[in-house]
Design brief:
Blueprint (H helix, E strand, L loop, with lengths): L12 H11 L2 H8 L6 H8 L4 E2 L15 E3 L2 E3 L3 E3 L12 H11 L3 E4 L7 H7 L5 E4 L5 H13 L4 E5 L35 H5 L7 H10 L4 E6 L2 H9 L4 E4 L13 H12 L5 E3 L6 H9 L4 E4 L1 H32 L14 E2 L5
Parallel strand pairs: 4-5, 4-11, 5-6, 6-7, 7-8, 8-9, 9-10, 10-11
Antiparallel strand pairs: 1-12, 2-3
The structure holds ligand FNR.
């Protein structure tokens, strides 16, 4: 049966997850779902949510409640953004443009990856509103600047600089028709001699540093948001360098295994930033209660990664839009039952710490 003809059976996220798994090539499924090494951080991203309970607060008047949020001058219908995910034509032939359409239809936002499988200008045209562009360092300043200028010219309205994945990990061999169409080919780095380190003398020799963040800050008037902050000192440095926001993220547990769960670090980072710039959050969000907990612990908005790709793989733009709607409905339900009419009512007093749930 055509996936869109039986969408009625896709009632929740786990149905989408199962459907996506059954439709995707096992190697692509593995690429989507895997975490680094022993997947300790991948699992920790989920279990960290169990440290917090949400007490119900009956009889609170929540008339007129809503989930609207304004970020960098854009009014969003809800605080659920679509995380940058590479090569989306692996999952559906309409790739990133389907995700852009869904984000727009649901009053949300898509962060388009530097590793998108469609031209960034084409993806921007799909959406009525301006999208955000996720920038990966291109080995040197000039090449990185050319990519930034293209995103600016195409109307992207915020730059999200991902800082936590400088080293290439063993990954999927891409099918011939899918590649990073927006990137210039980078000349091969000079060969590593046998007494040299592939990490320090190879990849890391071309990785960005804080000096490059400082330089990047001077290159654009657009909001600059750093994605991949886990240490509070790095949050401080981002603030001092004039960044407009940070995303507390461990890249969905895909980079350094053993790095803390994003949620564990969120309240610590939030305390350090003390409301001076917006904090966004991702890694491990799977339902509306998780979103509520992240907002209560200091996030202004959250990003979801793998769950919307389950929607994309199952039913294209319709599937992504439905995932967003399901999550928003759950968030609204959680807010209503915990006595919160608006996002500004959600704070740490709405949670109970309960480490015994582990
Ligand atoms: C990612 N992520 C990612 N991040 C980024 O900044 N640029 C990218 O191109 C990608 N690509 C990518 C591919 C795949 C298959 C996955 C699963 C993840 C990380 C992503 O933006 C986000 O941080 C995590 O996916 C959030 O965790 P959850 O929601 O998947 O648990």
């Amino acid at each position: 049966m055509h996936p869109l003809n039986d969408m009625g059976q896709l009632l929740n996220l786990s149905a989408y997850q199962s459907r996506a798994r059954s439709l995707l090539d096992p190697a692509i499924w593995q690429y989507l779902e895997h975490g680094a090494s022993e997947e300790i951080s991948l699992r920790a991203n989920r279990t960290a949510f169990n440290n917090w309970d949400i007490p119900t607060r009956p009889l609170t008047n929540v008339n007129g409640g809503h989930t609207r949020q304004t970020l960098y001058g854009q009014e969003l219908a809800h605080p659920i953004l679509l995380a940058p995910i590479a090569y989306q034509r692996l999952f559906h032939e309409q790739g990133e443009s389907a995700s852009a359409l869904a984000a727009c239809a649901q009053g949300g936002q898509l962060l388009v990856s530097s590793l998108a499988s469609q031209p960034l200008e084409y993806i921007a045209e799909t959406s009525d509103s301006n999208l955000w562009f996720q920038l990966y360092w291109q080995g040197e300043r000039e090449r990185t600047l050319r990519l930034l200028r293209r995103a600016e010219a195409a109307g992207y309205c915020a730059i999200v600089f991902t800082i936590d994945a400088p080293v290439k990990q063993a990954t999927l061999v891409l099918p011939a028709h899918i590649h990073s169409v927006n990137l210039e080919s980078i000349p091969p780095y000079s060969a590593i001699k046998s007494d040299q380190s592939q990490v320090f003398d190879g990849w890391m020799a071309h990785a960005p540093t804080w000096d490059d963040v400082s330089w990047l800050r001077q290159q654009t008037q657009l909001p600059l948001i750093l994605k991949g902050i886990i240490h509070p000192d790095d949050a401080d440095t981002a603030l001092k360098l004039g960044c407009d926001g940070i995303i507390v993220s461990n890249h969905g547990g895909r980079v350094l295994d053993g790095t803390p769960a994003s949620l564990t670090m969120l309240p610590i980072i939030s305390q350090r930033i003390a409301g001076q710039i917006p904090i966004l959050f991702d890694s491990g969000i799977r339902n509306g209660r998780d979103i509520f907990k992240a907002l209560a612990l200091g996030a202004s908005a959250v990003l979801i990664g793998r769950p919307y790709i389950w929607g994309l793989a199952s039913a294209g733009a319709m599937g992504v839009a439905h995932i967003l709607r399901l999550m928003r409905d759950e968030l609204e339900m959680t807010m209503a039952l915990s006595g919160c009419a608006t996002l500004s009512d959600i704070n740490s007093s709405k949670l109970f710490s309960n480490p015994s749930n582990q």
